[in-house]
Amino acid sequence: FDTMMSLPHSFGSVLSNVNILAFTVFFIVYCLVRFYQKRRHLSNIPPGPKPWPLVGNFGGFLIPSFIQRRFGQESASSDKSPVAALTELNKLYGNIYSLFVGSQLHVVLNGYDVIRDAFSNHPEVFSDRPDIPAISIMTKRKGIVFAPYGPVWKKQRKFCHATLRKFGLGKLSLEPCIVQGLDTIKAELLRLNEESDGAGVDPAPLISHAVSNVICSLILGQRFHHEDLEAGNLCEQPAVLINVFPLLYYLPFGVFKELRQVEGDMTAFLKRFIATHRETLDPKNPRDLTDMYLIEMLAQQAAGNLDSSFTEDYLFYIIGDLFIAGTDTTANSVLWVLLYLVLNTDIQDRVQAEIDKVVGTRRVPSLTDKGSLPFTEATIMEVQRLAVVVPLGIPHMASETTEFRGYSIPKGTVVVPNLWSVHRDPTVWDDPDTFNPDRFLDDDGNLLRREYFIPFGIGRRVCMGEQLAKMEMFLTVTSLLQAFKFRLPEGTPQPTLRGRFGLTLAPCSYTVCVIPRS
Known about the structure:
Layout: H1 2-5, H2 9-40, H3 62-70, H4 82-88, H5 90-93, E1 96-101, E2 104-110, H6 112-121, H7 123-126, H8 133-139, H9 151-166, H10 175-196, H11 204-219, H12 239-244, H13 254-279, H14 289-302, H15 312-343, H16 345-358, H17 374-387, E3 396-397, E4 402-404, E5 407-409, E6 414-418, H18 419-423, H19 466-483, E7 484-487, E8 500-501, E9 505-506, E10 513-516
Helix pairs in contact: 10-11, 10-19, 11-15, 13-15, 15-17, 15-19
Subcellular location: Endoplasmic reticulum membrane; Microsome membrane; Mitochondrion inner membrane
Transmembrane segments: 14-33
Organism: Labrus bergylta (ballan wrasse)
């Protein structure tokens, strides 16, 4: 013992390093063995590229994109976006193929026929939601968008959809709320454009603010200043890495720390408003969805239904779902429309000529004008087709092992609907990569409803806010184009159409010069 105690201290350090190395090697070998054991049990699954150990296939697609975005490499010369790369795989493996995120099997569905078959003809099997680490950590698998399919989800979705309709979803009664926000946008655009001295304005913050306030009016019963709604790019960048290595979420530095801070701020923000609504609730005069939910919750309690899913905790996650999903998708859709129109000024001129002819300049556009503005509608739809702001939809999950189109889909498989592949399919769209609004018009100039146009998804998980999004996009685009011409600042390079792949496919940051038409 005395001899051992007299050994140099460095020898103990060497032993410690050897132990760490041995543990690391053991851990890696263990993970590899588990990975290949799990793969051996998967028989007759769809074909696909060979996965990398530990990280699977998605490391080759999404991690390079994460690195590009983190270091600002978002030029038009960048490699293909992850979703375009995923779509090209169907040339090698067909319209149904397999990928792995870590050891988790994902089956990607490509093309309209395959996606419709899965979600419309087999809804009980393919309507569930997977346990995705980056999402589950924050949503606790509650709410509407990411909650598992089942009786609780059906009750909550039915209630929320009925309540939103009561407060104007898809109706003219919601139009004044949207128009009020547009008045603010137009005034701010002019002010910022004058202050820019020709450098142009980034429209993203203003568009996002206006869309957020519509959601806030429906859910929380009030509007907010821009600074109050500044939440940042919630979990876009670190989400990919967290899904592969969930423990990264808890790292006390970098983007992971920033993510937890944003999540904490949002939690405090929403819970404060739920508490205020509870304290000021008047059951005879509900002000918004939150009031209606609290009234239903109290009714369930009064009826002695102690197992009811209507709780303040569930309400918190529903509000978060509607707030985040309803803001990001619609705001990015409007931003894509503006971007395509500044890059195609001839189309912008045609839209404005139609608005001038139907609406004129003495009143703001209304939803009642929608049927009389077919080219404007066609332009919005064509941008939605090309941009596809949720290109891979929201992931589904197989709730049981099933046979689908000759392949075995094991229970728990993540099922990814590649909506991008539907909207860029050359077998159903002529010259699909070209911006051409006329493809949505018939020979008489009337609007065509195309079966293959599904930007809001399909099946039982179709977007609940589809009608609201359509209202906001139409009113925002027509109001802005009635008031302004949008042009690129002199001497600036043409913005890329590649987009930023995160929770949604958002356009890369761009600026526009705002020219009053009056």
